[in-house]
Structure formats: C-alpha cells, structure tokens
Design brief:
With 307 residues, the chain is mostly beta strands. It is built from 4 helices and 21 strands. The chain has helices spanning 58-65, 76-82, 123-130, 225-229, and strands at 2-6, 23-28, 34-39, 69-70, 91-92, 102-104, 116-118, 153-154, 157-161, 167-173, 178-184, 196-198, 209-210, 212-221, 234-236, 239-247, 250-258, 266-268, 282-288, 292-296, 299-303. The strands form 3 sheets. Strands 1, 2, 3, 4, 5, 8, 14, 15, 16, 17, 18 and 19 form a 12-stranded mixed sheet that branches. Strands 9, 10, 11, 12, 13, 20 and 21 form a 7-stranded mixed sheet that branches. The relative contact order is 0.18.
C-alpha cells in the first residue's frame, strides 16, 4: 500500500506509521510545503496518517510498487486523471461504511480534515469483500549489510531545505548504524534561525529513522499556466536522474534509474555500478532537478528549487 501522510500543518505531528513503513518518499506539494507517501509491504499499522490528498507524483510510486494508492481525495484535475488510468481500480479514498478502513483518531484533538487515518490491518477484509486483486507483488531489490567499497565521503548530517517553511536534517548515529530525522519547528522568515525537533511516530513512540537516506533530483513542471497558478506540479520520475545515497555514515554520488514502470528504482554510481542499500527503512527526499548540493566536514546540504 502507498499511503499519503501529511506533514503540515505542523500540529498534525507526530504522524502515525512512518517507522513501520518500508519506504517513505517526501516531495514538494505547494506553498513551500512537503508531504509523504509511505510504502507498506512487510508491516501493518492500525493507524497510518493523517491521510491527505493525492498528487500527480503519486502515480509513479503506486506503479513502482504495484500498490494500492491510499489518499483523501485530490484536486479535481488530479482525481479525474487518475480515474482514467489503468490503476483506477487501485485508488483507495474514503467512502461510507467500514470499507475502506478510514477512521478518526479519538486521542488526537484535531478537526476531522486533519484527523483521518487508515488501518492497514483491516484492508485485507475489504479486498476480499469487494473482489479486489489480492496477490502480493514480487518486488526485487539490492540490499546488503556490507558497506559498499565505492568511495564516497563522510555523511554525519544530511540537510534538505525545501523552503523557509519546510526543512529537515538527518543525523547519523554510528552506534545504531542509522539516520534519525529532525524536522523544522518554525519558519526562517525575518532572519529567524533554523529550529529543529525530533520527528517521532505516534504509534511506536520512536523517532523517525532510516537505514538509507536517498536524495533524488527530478524535473518539476506544470502542464499549463492554470496549473502553475495553483502549483499543481508534475514531477517526472521516469528515465534517470542525479541522486545521492547515504548509508553507514557515508554519502555516495549516484544516479537513479527507472528501468521499468512497475519496479522500484535502481540506484547506481555515475558509472553504472549498482549501489546496494542497507537492510531497513529507506527514506527518499525528492527535490527539483535544478536544485543544488554542497558538502564538507561530514555535512551535506541540499536546496530544493523548481522551474
């Protein structure tokens, strides 16, 4: 399942289920803000969310993982498009009754719009009840606990700046061998300094963490001037593009390659040598192809820009 999870407004934090997902993608939506799409393949969670609306980009993720796409409706242009595709039967949005299993979390005192969660443990009953495809896709990947002998440079902290309103950092903890997520708590308008706090999971109580952090450079565009006015982005995750892979406290310049639309990305060195990922959660930061990167003293900085 590929489930949309809100990151804004800030009061929706802590989100639920991010430490139980196998893969998480973060990408720019509009207004300087980002959203997540979390892939559940090996684990379940009674609470995932808050679930928010879909975007054109989500189609890439649903196809790569052959997943049901769970979202809380979408812009009319996005929803109408998705309903014309061959993944239309795999769209999961709220409806009357217990199927699909969306529900409010009574312990979160939020308005209903930002308090809608999905229960993956109950989805199997809905699949059987409605005669939906139930075969679990076979997904291949390149994983190894051994540190790749591919060069690279120290990467103890990885910063991603989407905007003055949305920025984050990943801090490597060598005693655990994973990166831990810190999220902004305020904007940087009027000369304010960056402010961070650990991003935690309301279900597990754990800080959001990842064995691998991957930064993907992808082209962002608008289909027409009307979509540009509303920041309705089309993010192109077909073909290949620049990337950086972080694991074991080391950063590797890379390329992402989407060889087939129904398989996950292949990550290689710029020369085409496959880069294995460390077993565990992989968190992808998707930024514009015009973005820029810098690094030094074990710190890496990525600044998102769009056309």
């Amino acid at each position: 399942m590929a489930i949309k999870v809100a990151n804004y407004p800030r009061y929706v934090r802590p989100q639920s289920g991010l430490t139980l997902a196998d893969q998480v993608f973060e990408y720019y939506i509009e207004g300087g803000l980002t959203r997540y799409i979390a892939i559940f393949y090996g684990n379940d969670s009674e609470w995932v969310g808050p679930v928010r609306s879909g975007r054109f980009f989500d189609e890439h993720i649903a196809r790569m993982y052959q997943a049901y796409l769970v979202f809380k409706f979408a812009d009319k242009r996005v929803l109408e498009y998705l309903r014309t595709t061959d993944i239309a039967d795999f769209l999961v949005v709220p409806s009357e009754g217990a199927c699909p299993p969306f529900r409010l979390m009574p312990t979160r005192k939020l308005e209903a719009y930002n308090n809608n969660y999905f229960n993956t443990t109950l989805w199997g009953d809905c699949v059987r009840k409605n005669g939906l495809p139930a075969d679990k896709p076979y997904l291949s990947g390149n994983f190894s606990p051994d540190v790749p002998q591919l060069g690279g440079a120290p990467a103890l902290r990885v910063f991603t700046y989407f905007s003055k309103f949305s920025y984050n950092q990943w801090e490597y903890k060598p005693e655990i061998g994973e990166y831990f997520r810190f999220q902004e708590t305020d904007d940087t308008l009027d000369g304010k300094e960056e402010a961070y706090a650990p991003l935690t999971d309301n279900v597990t109580g754990l800080q959001v963490h990842a064995a691998n952090v991957v930064v993907l450079f992808a082209y962002h565009e608008f289909a027409n001037p009307y979509q540009e006015d509303d920041e309705v982005y089309h993010i192109d995750l077909t073909g290949s593009g620049e990337a950086y892979v972080f694991r074991d406290g080391v950063g590797y310049p890379a390329r992402w390659n989407r060889l087939y639309k129904d398989q996950p990305l292949l990550l290689t060195t710029p020369d085409g040598v496959p880069i294995p990922l460390r077993p565990g959660i992989t968190f992808y930061e998707v930024i514009g192809s015009n973005s820029y990167a810098s690094q030094g003293d074990g710190e890496w900085f990525f600044h998102h820009t769009t056309p």
